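Supplementary Methods. Inverse-folding protocol.

Structures were first reduced to a discrete structure-token string of length 353. This string, shown here, constituted the complete conditioning input.
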């Protein structure tokens, strides 16, 4: 990470710490922090970091944007920053200037499809769209008779069915019933799975960040919690669990970082990108399942209470597993890739990573 990236991530972390501290949010039991946070995020250009400067964005690198997303995961950020970054990337990729305010993207489920008809109207249903009700606009990847297109849509023009994820964050179903987009552009090199691939990497980074914080909280608690006149960190069983948690976190961080590096260095439609992103989403999902369980074991009953911050990280990590394809979906994608490559091409691809 270079000096510029360090500054970008440090700025994001400082804003999250000052305006969206998880413990302060729990104690306040209010949503007043959301508006203040979003104003600060927009003021410094974090929300449109991936949008080219010619379109009014920050023109940040892939690494910069994913650094912000990782920091958001470490802060268990219950705000559509990651979704807005992803929407900005999608719109900027095809030369559409994004509007101000929070955004989200659609579709985010492998089997959901949206279509643009000859009259320029969008139809279809997109399930489990994160923060849809909080987003002013949606960036949509849809099919048309001329190939894939990217469209910018007003959320108020769609029908929303409210829902929540495990962490209680908005996760809504969006119905596109002959919706007329504000702008449409051909997707160009973006394939049908481009949004899933990029979104899966976003969620992998968020999971890695959340697990990093869960490990930090668990280690700290183990040194503070006294049982039988000594810290529980002195007990071999606890040490073993923390070592396992550390291994899961290291695996998640490494897999997510490798996927980011591949996106920065190669075409999103390449076999290398599919291999790295699928592996990252699978491994981070497995780490979320195992790691959150260990973190709660270390904390005992206190970790399950509403007053403790741990659940803000563990529930979001578990929720993010299912976004943009779960482990089963990406395992199938990986299996199909391996079958298509055959034995002669598989090893060179693996050895090149």
């Amino acid at each position: 990470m270079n000096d510029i990236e360090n500054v970008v991530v440090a700025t994001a972390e400082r804003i999250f710490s000052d305006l969206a501290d998880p413990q302060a949010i729990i104690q306040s039991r209010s949503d007043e922090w959301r508006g203040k946070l979003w104003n600060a995020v927009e003021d410094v250009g974090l929300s449109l970091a991936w949008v080219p400067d010619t379109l009014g964005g920050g023109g940040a690198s892939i690494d910069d944007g994913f650094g912000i997303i990782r920091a958001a995961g470490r802060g268990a950020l219950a705000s559509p920053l990651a979704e807005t970054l992803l929407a900005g990337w999608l719109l900027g990729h095809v030369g559409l200037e994004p509007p101000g305010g929070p955004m989200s993207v659609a579709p985010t489920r492998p089997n959901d499809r949206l279509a643009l008809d000859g009259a320029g109207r969008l139809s279809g249903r997109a399930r489990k769209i994160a923060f849809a009700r909080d987003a002013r606009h949606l960036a949509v990847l849809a099919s048309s008779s001329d190939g894939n297109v990217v469209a910018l849509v007003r959320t108020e023009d769609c029908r929303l069915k409210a829902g929540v994820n495990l962490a209680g964050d908005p996760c809504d179903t969006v119905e596109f019933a002959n919706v007329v987009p504000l702008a449409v552009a051909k997707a160009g090199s973006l394939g049908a799975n481009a949004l899933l691939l990029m979104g899966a990497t976003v969620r992998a980074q968020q999971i890695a960040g959340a697990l990093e914080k869960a490990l930090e909280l668990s280690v700290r608690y183990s040194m503070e919690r006294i049982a039988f006149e000594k810290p529980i960190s002195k007990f071999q069983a606890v040490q073993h669990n923390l070592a396992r948690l550390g291994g899961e976190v290291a695996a998640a961080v490494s897999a997510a970082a490798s996927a980011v590096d591949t996106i920065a260095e190669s075409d999103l439609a390449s076999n290398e990108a599919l291999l790295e992103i699928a592996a990252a989403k699978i491994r981070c999902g497995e780490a979320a399942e195992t790691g959150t369980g260990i973190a709660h074991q270390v904390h005992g009953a206190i970790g399950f209470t509403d007053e403790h911050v741990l659940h803000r990280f563990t529930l979001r990590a578990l929720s993010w597993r299912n976004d943009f394809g779960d482990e089963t979906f990406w395992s199938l994608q990986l299996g199909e890739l391996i079958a298509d490559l055959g034995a002669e091409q598989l090893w060179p691809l693996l050895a090149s990573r």
